[in-house]
Amino acid sequence: MTPDTPLTPAEDDEALAAELVLGLLEGEAAEAAMARLTQDPGFARAVRGWQERLAGLAEGLTPVMAPARARQAIRERLGHARAPLTIDPNARAAWWRGPAGWLAGLLAVAATLALLWLPGQPGPEAPMAPGAPVYQAQLSGADAVLRAAARIEGRDMRIALESGAAPEGRDWEVWWIGSEDATPVSMGVMPRDGEMRMTLPEGMEPSPLVRLALSDEPAGGSPTGQATGPVMAIAALTAL
Amino acid sequence: MTDARRSDLENLISRVALGDRAAFDALYDATSAKLHAVCLSVLKDRPEAEETLQEVYIRVWQGAARYAANGLSPMTWLITIARNRSIDRLRARSARPVTAPEDAAAQVASGDPSPESATIAAQERRMLHECLAQLAAPQAGAVRAVYLEGFSYADLAEREGLPINTVRSWLRRSLLRLKDCVTQ
């Protein structure tokens, strides 16, 4: 295959499958390829092959944790959780006084009891199991103005800025560095007030090898998901 | 991706298909940082990436029951959803984009037994980076820009200062060379 010879029909089909997966086709060409996908098993197989092959490119991306509110929003949108304060406390009709209310009340009590009694099924706000390992990290900048404290109990992590907020138009981004040569994982942007709280996902195991770092990024965090600014503070976890 | 991780994810997806919220939470924990990175890579905007990530997991919840039929490995299925949603959003202002849907292969009978194609896919995945390195730098860069940043032919033509047809021709050839390399 040199740049001058035309593609064979088989090569042309392969290239078309790749273009469809990549989203490079437009208009009629795109519609024709989509139609072919539903009718031609060989073409569908080629498309699947390209989806697998190219997904490898994404596997090389540095993971970036989404803020906890993203998960909450998904739960709300799927009806798995209620938004805080969606019940109007001033609503006039006291529905719980009717028979349906009694039934709902009984069910709620039963559900609560089930939650309390079933072993290994803690509620979402269950207190930390006693004996869960506790770690902390004190991060401070070279100028000693920037200071932040992190605490991890079990899989629950909190981090808060104690002093030294980022300048206007900048943010400190929090990174988790799993080991000496691990790629840093973004945990999100350090809030200017209050603390950031998250549940550590599987694969992010607290240990004394783990370091937390703050980098200087544009407001809202690194637009690419990779640290772009200098590291302002870094500290290893210490077991308590 | 190891076989153990693959079967863990498949197990979670099959439980999600049955409406298991704990499995959905576990799947989110295991994969959301990677999928968020995909959204961010294409959109380069944190709030938009976060919003897109929500759409991705809603689609995962709704589409999990059809996952088994599509013959894709679990990470490919998830990454493809995240990338397609991100590119839809990226191009929402202009013409409607068309990317092969994540359940493309489910639309016609799958010819390959799934485990075998999974092994082949894993081998190709290992070769991918090596083979990209064998392409000339602009070509490898173009493949990455198209997949990871949602470049169109017009974007590539502008970046390279070449006519669209020229860019299209060399990208198609680069992709074929890449496939020959990873499948050899």
UniProtKB/TrEMBL annotation, chain A:
GO MF annotation list: sigma factor antagonist activity
Lineage: superkingdom: Bacteria
Record domain Anti-sigma K factor RskA C-terminal: where: 107-231
Matching Pfam families: RskA_C
GO biological process: regulation of translation
A GO CC term assigned to this protein in UniProt: plasma membrane
Protein's recorded name: Anti-sigma K factor RskA C-terminal domain-containing protein
Automatic annotation (TrEMBL), chain B:
Domain RNA polymerase sigma-70 region, residue spans: 27-94
NCBIfam families: sigma70-ECF
A Pfam cross-reference name: Sigma70_r2
Protein name: Sigma-70 family RNA polymerase sigma factor
Gene Ontology molecular function, alphabetical: DNA binding; sigma factor activity
Source taxon at top rank: Bacteria
InterPro entries linked to this entry: RNA_pol_sigma-70-like, RNA_pol_sigma-70_dom, RNA_pol_sigma70_r2, RNA_pol_sigma70_r4_t2, RNA_pol_sigma_r2, RNA_pol_sigma_r3/r4-like, WH-like_DNA-bd_sf
Domain RNA polymerase sigma factor 70 region 4 type per the UniProt entry, residue ranges: 126-178
UniProt family annotation: Belongs to the sigma-70 factor family. ECF subfamily.
Keywords, in A-Z order: Sigma factor, Transcription, Transcription regulation
GO BP term (any one): DNA-templated transcription initiation
Coiled coil segments of this chain: none
